Amino acid sequence: MPTDAAPRDAGRGSLSDVVTSDAALRRFLQGLPGVDAVGLEARAAALGTRSIKTTAKAYALDLAISMIDLTTLEGADTPGKVRSLCAKGARPDPGDRSTPRVAAICVYGDMAAVAKEALAELGAGEINVASVATAFPSGRAAMPVKLADTRDAVAAGADEIDMVIDRGAFLAGRYMQVFEEIQEVKAACGAAHLKVIFENGELATYDNIRRASWLAMLAGADFIKTSTGKVAVNATPPNTLLMLEAVRDFRAATGRQVGVKPAGGIRTAKDAIKYLVMVNETVGDDWLSPDWFRFGASSLLNDLLMQRQKLSTGRYSGPDYVTVD
Amino acid sequence: MSTPDTHSSARLSVLKTYKLYVGGKFPRSESGRVYEVTEAKSGQWLANAPLASRKDARDAVVAARKAFGGWSGATAYNRGQILYRIAEMLEGRREQFAAEVASAEGLSKAKAQARTDAAIDRWVWYAGWSDKLAQVVGGGNPVAGPFFNLSTPEPTGVVAVLAPRSSSLLGLVSVLAPVIVTGNTAVVVASKAAPLPALSLAEVLATSDLPGGVVNMLSGDTAELARPLAAHQDVNAIDLAGADAELAAELEGAAAENLKRVLRPDGDDWAAEPGLERMTAFLETKTVWHPIGA
């Protein structure tokens, strides 16, 4: 059931006063309704049972491919690896030119320039370069370092910045600190889109995820993102559903639309389609576009391509027919 | 009031739910379907067997692919030990298999027992080949240069096996053992009319240290399962023992798409002494050159 998380008396645009002071912000976030964990999980599970076939499946597969932030965030990333990832993003299935391109290539800040250049050479300038910043993935650095990290990435050509919040401050209840941090990073981003990563696996409770969602949206996030992909618990259907409900309620309260990006742990086309069903049923058509919903993934793309080949040829494909990286 | 005597005779029989064997687990068919298996002679109902769908076949291929690295990488000695262990487990369930073979093939008790024993012996025979085949079909090649040149047999990958239609245990063992002894993994489509010995064999495999996914057992309509398997791009070879001539021709065509190795049915006599053909049919030859030290 849709949980109306927005305070019922909150009229459109009237949320500006909740960020005037630390106490007001805390009161607002602590005052958000608690999450019905059992209901949320049951709802997410129920939405995962839809059967999507034939033309609807073809549409969903192409949409999912176009929503992917094709990601490599390894210590072992080389310029060569980033370039080959860009080539894959620009032409996911070289054997089928009708395959859509991915939405973005997601790399560490020092690889943003390499990715930007590689995409330009490939004639795939419409693919964005997303760069993680602010001491990803732990977020444990001083504020000037985080801002410098962000500015660096933007200067290197990143179109989107994926920042991590300071989970330590959030869990300690210093909401205003997190709020201001997001605002400052947003300012440092300039024209680049800002995605705010919560690392749901470390926030421990659904209530915290709801609070973090509202906090980030109030601070000006363009996207809210589930996780870094670096901890045990990443994107799950329930916590993504919770964030979708938050962006829906936020738009109802303020009129501003915010995107959602589940990341980590989504590996199969079946999973991806379950997420798309969830988007459609929770927030509707407005979010069913790469501008408002993204998948942070790397191996997911191969499974989507194999499913696409199965649909077009009628025979099952195998991992020998997609590139490894 | 019932007397103690009638009490014991009133015991309800416990019917067995036969299931598929995929990835080391015993799932029902994804489709939820079953079909009736009847006794060969009397036509009496024996059990319900799962009627696997093409999605079960797909899942089985995924499981087999996952298991391939570990199984092909195990030492030949280790594989032989595990296969021999399977024979030990079969020996312990001789009576059960003999009874299932008797009702599946319409044989007398003595004949069914003889076939079961032959199947166990066949398994032992193949188990022994695991660490000997390389010496027979591989070897050192003389070359014009200061090199060792060695050819060794390597498993081809995931093999789809259509088990013989009539010989429910001996035939099955004769096609399955040669596939896995060399390090391949298998997706087996059991005989549609007589699947029960195959599904029971899966229980033996599950308790014999054989890693999950090395053998995956499906029961159902042969043509329905064989078509997606023959066309599957991630299957490396197919054994057509259980296909009739018309189906076999069609499957060969589909298998050509990704150059699968195909073993055609040739009216095999399962009682005859086997040769090496069924093992070598699913092998590749790897040749390495190594400089001879000074």
UniProtKB/TrEMBL annotation, chain A:
<dbReference type="Pfam" id="PF01791">
    <property type="entry name" value="DeoC"/>
</dbReference>
<comment type="pathway">
    <text>Carbohydrate degradation; 2-deoxy-D-ribose 1-phosphate degradation; D-glyceraldehyde 3-phosphate and acetaldehyde from 2-deoxy-alpha-D-ribose 1-phosphate: step 2/2.</text>
</comment>
<dbReference type="InterPro" id="IPR013785">
    <property type="entry name" value="Aldolase_TIM"/>
</dbReference>
<dbReference type="InterPro" id="IPR011343">
    <property type="entry name" value="DeoC"/>
</dbReference>
<comment type="similarity">
    <text>Belongs to the DeoC/FbaB aldolase family. DeoC type 2 subfamily.</text>
</comment>
<protein>
    <recommendedName>
        <fullName>Deoxyribose-phosphate aldolase</fullName>
        <ecNumber>4.1.2.4</ecNumber>
    </recommendedName>
</protein>
<keyword id="KW-0456">Lyase</keyword>
<dbReference type="InterPro" id="IPR002915">
    <property type="entry name" value="DeoC/FbaB/LacD_aldolase"/>
</dbReference>
<dbReference type="GO" id="GO:0004139">
    <property type="term" value="F:deoxyribose-phosphate aldolase activity"/>
</dbReference>
<keyword id="KW-0704">Schiff base</keyword>
UniProtKB/TrEMBL annotation, chain B:
<dbReference type="InterPro" id="IPR015590">
    <property type="entry name" value="Aldehyde_DH_dom"/>
</dbReference>
<feature type="domain" description="Aldehyde dehydrogenase">
    <location>
        <begin position="29"/>
        <end position="262"/>
    </location>
</feature>
<keyword id="KW-0560">Oxidoreductase</keyword>
<dbReference type="InterPro" id="IPR016161">
    <property type="entry name" value="Ald_DH/histidinol_DH"/>
</dbReference>
<dbReference type="Pfam" id="PF00171">
    <property type="entry name" value="Aldedh"/>
</dbReference>
<protein>
    <submittedName>
        <fullName>Aldehyde dehydrogenase family protein</fullName>
    </submittedName>
</protein>
<dbReference type="InterPro" id="IPR016162">
    <property type="entry name" value="Ald_DH_N"/>
</dbReference>
